[in-house]
Amino acid sequence: MDKQLEKYKSKIFINNMLESAIRIGLLIILIGWTLGIIKPFIIPVLWGAIIAVALMPLTLKLEGVMKGRRGLSATVLALIGIAILVVPLVIVMGSIFDGIVSLTEFLQNESVKLPGPSARVAEIPLIGGKLHSTWSLFATNMEQALVRYGEEIKAGVSAFAGALGSGLATVVMFIISLLIAAGFMAHSEAMAKAVKQVSVRVVGKHGEEWAGLIAATIRSVLLGVVGVAFIQSILIGAAMFVFQIPAAGLITFAVFILAIAQLPALLIVLPVIVYVFSYMDTTPATIFTVWVLLAGLSDNLLKPMLMGRGVEIPMPVILIGAIGGMISAGIIGLFIGAVILAIWYELFMTWMKMPQQSDEPSSDPSQEKSLKD
Question: 69 falls in which pLDDT band (50, 70, 90)?
Answer without folding.
Answer: confident
